[in-house]
Amino acid sequence: MAKTQSHDNSHSVRGHIVFAFALAIALYLAWLIRGVLVLLYVSALFAVVLAPVVRATSRIRIGRWQPFHGSAAILILLLAVAALLTAFGFLALPPVLRDLQALSGEMPTRVPAFLARFQKIPFADRLNSDEVIAWIQGSISQTAAYLLLSFREWAGDLVQIVAGFVLTLYFILEGEGAYHWFLSFLQPQPRKRLDDTLQRAAIRMEKWLLGQASLMLILGVVSTIVYLSLGVRYAYALGVLTGLLNIIPVLGAAVSLGLAILVAAIDSWGRVLGVAIFFLVYLQIENTWLIPRIMRSRVNLPALAIFVALLIGAAFEGILGAMVAIPTAVLVSVLVDEYLVRTAEPE
Hints:
Elements: H1 2-32, H2 34-58, H3 71-118, H4 129-149, H5 151-183, H6 188-230, H7 235-245, H8 251-265, H9 269-299, H10 303-323, H11 325-341
Helix pairs in contact: 2-3, 2-5, 2-6, 6-7, 6-9, 6-11, 7-8, 8-9, 10-11
């Protein structure tokens, strides 16, 4: 009896050692292909978030005819997005290009006038117009050289974006089958529990998408009204960009502010001041009133958790990590609540 128990113990120890080695090898392999795993995760997350839009499009009926179903719904959405981007380009780009051409021809005469106004600011009277023009030309040359030298990196990023886009489409079309195949590895009771948990997480992610779309729409409309009232050039184009860039947390607002200030600086410092005041006031209202009421009510996460998730996502994957930080935080919170926090129901 003792010999049998000793044999079982040694067998158990060997099993634990083999499992530890297998786990270490699996983690090492996951680290080697972490880029692919991140791409798969982000694509699957976007598919979960965008699936309700596809389902809503699929439910459109013309009488008894349901023309948009499955892949046809995705095709219609892609065509609609392409049409909107094309229309935006045709309406917004021509005046910008005309002004850039005119500005490039007038730069030698306009820069001294700009510096004359700028030198009225304390400690700015030491600037020389020739030095500033030379600095601008040198900066443009350095930027062009950087773009050419980093073409390989940009091409690699473009390939990653295209691959992620294609994977997202595949997950939307065939993700349900892959999801049930993954669950099939579990026993019936754990399978049902995990399925219910992930379904709850998916519902909260869909609510996050609605909340984020609401924030983008509010900022786009309000910024357009402010740009028009201030007389800023390209007000409609800037308003649309400001709303769209709001999907990128923190950085989107910074880019929008920089673009608006650059455009406003063409005409007057008063408009620059007006744009800066608008962004300061709006960001305070958004962070203290809109986000807590819209986001917290939809994703059921405190503002601190949202902010920490954004920091962690940006630290791991930059802009892309910040974009998926809140849905990931929703998923993690639902899993933690189900498997770590929730107490067992009394029998």
